[in-house]
Amino acid sequence: MTEAAAVAPAPAAPAPIRRWTTRQVLSGFWRLLVAIKDALALLFLLLFFMLLFGALSGRPNPTAFVGTGALVLKLDGVISEQPAAVDPFASLMGNAPVREFRRADLVHALETAASDDRVKAVVLDLDRFMGGGQVALGDVAEAIGKVRAANKPVLAYATAYGDDAYQLASQASEIWTDRSGGVLIAGPGGSRLYYRGLIDRLGVTANIYRVGTFKSAIEPFLRNDQSPEAEEATRAYAAVLWEQWQAQVSRARPRAQLDQFIADPAAAMRANGNDLARAARSAGLIDRIGTRLDFDKRVATIAGTPDEARPWKYNRIALDAFVSANPMPSDGERIAVIPVVGEIVDGEGGPGSAAGDTIAAHIFDAIADEEVKAIVLRVDSPGGSVLASERIRSALMHAKTVRRLPIVVSMGSVAASGGYWIATPADRIIAEPDTITGSIGVFAVLPSFERALANIGVGADGIRTTPLSGQPDLLGGPNEAFDALAQASVEDIYARFTSIVASSRKMPVERVREIAEGRVWAGGTARQLGLVDAFGGLETAVAEAARLARIDPENTHVRYFEEGPDSFALFLQSLGGSPDEQEGAPPSGWLAQAAWMREARFAQVITDARRFAGTGGVQAACLECGDWMAPRFPTPEERAAGWRLLGL
């Protein structure tokens, strides 16, 4: 071994340890803060421009350009009296709620289109239409009829038509369906959920306090099926609604073999080679069978096309642009319209929620507006909180005593229980024959868990200094003193409810109690009983309010006092993609839509659970009446919660 090889290399010197001075640490920290500040400034600047753009794009624009062509009503969603607030972040995540179309906007757009020379035709795209309350549907159908009366074509298309979609389509001059589609009319009815078995399995006690033989809102907590009294009442008003539906459709399609087709659709299919579309055409329910491409080509022959090389591309007028370009009239004396839509709840809330404090605030705004000559309360609600209902009623009474403003109530599809409570100050109540109203009764429900605790070997005990110490005892169960107090309170509120109705309708209170008991009535029967003054829609109610205010109904305009849509939320919704791309987009085809509609029952599960938890206090609510309003579809979170609640 050589001397060079024997010498081992010297070990490398360790890297020097860098020592940060206090000044360097503070300098680095400062640079980090500056970077965060710059990033936040850029973020807030971006949000500012997004808000500005959203506000500008969400504001109605009377000068919006509207060309010549077909007015397209692509109703992918439901028709409601007042669209609910939109969750902006759900839209960004591609999970927007089902769109809600305002009934008044659709009616005004159609009535305007009837006399607008730019509108060559109206297209009803009902492929993903999920329905609405029958009164709202009747109003829109009547407006479609006005377009037909003006000798303008109305063409409807859907892969398949259910009851609500066909109620609108029947007014069209041409009804199209896909080769794999057809018409399937089910009529009113269906199952709702009853929880007695689940409650017993969980060991929960449902403590119920109520007045009203027909007050079936609490039956889901007491039974596993409907009572004979509830069935009797439901059959009575369902028969009226069904009769009204058939009458309207038969007037629009007098040659259609409607009764035979509805009575035995399977026989009609067998006679046409098991082809539902052909069966519907043979019965005269539809006019043409074809693809979407065939339909678009047909519309193009009427409305024209911007590109001859693409004959299926017809000239379109978007609904939103047409509504913006044709605002409601603003000349003449002012009539305030205040919508009360959805369940009546305590506190404040956005559009589509009948929050007592918010509705009352709008009434006071109308009172403070010296140009307002009368108030029309548009009610589409199954009721709810007694306290919130009384808050609204008191505000209306204030309008009558302070400014002597005439009050007219216009009932939509449903105005029951608390929805009728708030109607009592009215000088006149206007409803439709198929309005659901009445349900004059109250209840409260409170769960207790003594059986559930006993099942797992847990007891509940303590001291009492008075009969109401620790009451209501949700662990050991309410005692007799509390039960007596709660029942007396409910009976007192019921006595007040019937007394208010008796005073308002100028009836003996004994007569009111005969027709009360929580029973639900259709509008035609309610008028015979004296609960309603006249038939008509919102337009009739506005004219009646003008007459009571001693002004010319032809020289009036309507101003809505309500929570407006959030422009920023609408903007974020537009960033989430088209409705077809959203997770919550409704399906097409009758089978998929029927299943999807049934899944909406999970929204009912969550509502029932809240009511069972007793969080709403004493209720003047008609739980079953919600089935006759515009459907509300559950969010994914509510669907999951519904499955968990049912133990599935």
Write down the overall geometry. Answer: globular
Number of strands: 23
The fraction of residues assigned to DSSP E strands is 15-25%
Biggest sheet character: 8 strands, mixed
What is the straight-line distance between the termini?
82 Å
Walk me through the structure:
By secondary structure, the protein is of the alpha/beta class. The chain has a domain of 201 residues: Alpha-Beta Complex (2-enoyl-CoA Hydratase, Chain A, domain 1), CATH 3.90.226. It contains 26 helices and 23 strands. Strands 11, 14, 16, 17, 18, 20, 21 and 22 form an 8-stranded mixed sheet that branches. It has a 6-stranded parallel sheet with strand order 9-7-6-4-1-10, sandwiched between helices. Helix 17 links the parallel strand 16 and strand 17. Helix 15 packs parallel to helix 16. It starts with a helix and ends with a helix. The N terminus is likely disordered.
TL;DR of this structure?
By secondary structure, the chain is an alpha/beta fold. The chain has 26 helices and 23 strands.
What is the fold's blueprint, element by element?
Blueprint: H1 3-6, H2 22-58, E1 69-74, E2 77-80, H3 88-92, E3 99-102, H4 103-115, E4 119-125, E5 129-132, H5 134-149, E6 154-161, H6 163-169, E7 174-183, H7 196-202, E8 205-211, H8 219-222, H9 228-252, H10 258-263, H11 265-270, H12 276-282, E9 288-289, H13 292-303, E10 316-318, H14 319-325, E11 333-341, E12 344-345, E13 354-355, H15 356-368, E14 372-381, E15 383-385, H16 386-402, E16 407-416, H17 418-421, E17 428-431, E18 436-438, E19 442-448, H18 450-455, H19 480-505, H20 509-515, E20 520-522, H21 523-529, E21 534-535, H22 538-548, E22 556-560, H23 567-575, H24 590-599, H25 601-612, E23 619-621, H26 636-645
Parallel strand pairs: 1-4, 1-10, 2-3, 2-5, 4-6, 6-7, 7-9, 11-14, 11-22, 12-13, 14-16, 16-17, 16-18, 17-21
Antiparallel strand pairs: 8-19, 15-23, 18-20
